[in-house]
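seq:
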Amino acid sequence: GEKLVLSERVCTLGRGEGNTIQVSDSQLFSVSRVHCIFEYRGNRWHMRDNGSTNGTWKRLSCVLEPSNPIPLSDGVSIQAGVHEFLVEEAEMKQWWIPSIGRAALEDHFEQERREQQRPQQRQLPPASGSE
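struct:
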């Protein structure tokens, strides 16, 4: 199967365009346009059904709306329509920083570098009043 990495804090799965994970549905309408939603909260992923017609299944238990997001763990199988997904936890060796955050960090480090290169000016003590 195909491996996907979720990099946004909120991701969607469904047959409609614009989903983070878009699935083609050979059995028309077994997967809703926006079938379920994945949210990263705290230090783990959670999943909730988005009111889909056929539900989202986790280990043979149907997750239907309205429901609180259900925590996901490594090795859990999720099924939407005829599509099955296996959750795998991956350790990130490098963190992804959005471009605006990266630009701010680069500016900060550049400013620190300039300040370190500036010659240090020593202040002389005031002259004593012996005129």
